[in-house]
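queue> pop job 88
queue> type: inverse folding (structure -> sequence)
queue> payload:
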């Protein structure tokens, strides 16, 4: 299978006082180009740790992450592909919106990833690009000069998404991207992410508690239980015909 990013046998253990927490315990899966892979499971089962390992924030204790079939996490990692993953990936966290620099304008916030990559051109073209990104996320040029404090939670998350899109990412790691938003705004942001994914065709790891959201947005789903990936499958197959006893239990706890 030609995966954009793949985890093979990754493990991440944390020592907490005298205990070893097996946060991720021998997990393997891949995300194809243009695919949305949803990761579900109870609190503490290891979803965020996996998101951090795939994005390179954590180095797994063992196992390997591959980007375009080249190792990017272990001893034999290939610098060229580590760099490509870094440049082609964006992360949208639960609190991305809250973490926007309160002193910066929306224009500067959205441009920052290009600044970091030394890809700014000239002021008017750059501004045009920002406006384009804002419009993609349902905002307008009126927002250019605003600061995060002047925006609602939903608008801030739109700005965070616009900021991710400006580098034309091939991969978005979304870790609970709607969890901190009001219920009424969550659907809008999920619809936006789904539309953008269909337009831009980036691959996505989508981590969420909410199974109905995962079902709506994902092509494939992985179910985690205590650090292990206990079942993966195409979304509708998995939801309609879960195989494992844990998946059955998890799905029966909700009404979809
Ligand atoms: N830096 C750390 N140090 C110690 N333990 C950690 C660390 N990060 C995570 N853990 C533990 O590893 C386990 C998995 O955590 P993780 O955050 O990956 O789960 P999760 O499924 O994302 O949970 P949630 O849905 O609550 O975010 C938990 O028991 C957590 O307490």
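queue> result:
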């Amino acid at each position: 299978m030609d995966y954009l990013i793949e985890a093979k046998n990754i493990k991440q253990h944390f020592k907490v006082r005298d205990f070893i927490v097996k946060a991720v315990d021998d997990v393997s899966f891949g995300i194809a180009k243009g695919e949305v892979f949803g990761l579900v499971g109870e609190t503490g089962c290891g979803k965020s740790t996996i998101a951090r390992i795939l994005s390179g924030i954590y180095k797994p204790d063992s196992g390997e992450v591959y980007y375009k079939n080249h190792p990017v996490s272990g001893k034999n990692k290939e610098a060229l592909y580590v760099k490509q993953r870094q440049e082609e990936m964006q992360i949208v966290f639960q609190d991305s919106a809250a973490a926007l620099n309160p002193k910066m304008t929306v224009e500067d916030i959205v441009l920052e990833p290009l600044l970091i990559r030394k890809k700014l051109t000239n002021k008017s073209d750059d501004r045009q690009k920002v406006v384009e990104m804002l419009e993609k996320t349902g905002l307008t040029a009126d927002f250019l000069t605003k600061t995060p404090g002047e925006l609602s939670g939903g608008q801030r998350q739109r700005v965070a998404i616009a900021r991710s899109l400006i580098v034309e990412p091939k991969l978005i790691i979304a870790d609970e991207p709607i969890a901190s938003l009001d219920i009424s705004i969550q659907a809008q942001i999920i619809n936006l992410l789904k539309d953008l994914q269909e337009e831009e065709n980036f691959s996505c790891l989508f981590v969420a508690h909410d199974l109905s959201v995962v079902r709506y947005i994902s092509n494939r789903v992985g179910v985690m239980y205590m650090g292990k990936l206990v079942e993966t499958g195409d979304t509708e197959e998995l939801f309609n015909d879960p195989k494992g006893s844990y998946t059955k239990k998890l799905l029966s706890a909700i009404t979809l």
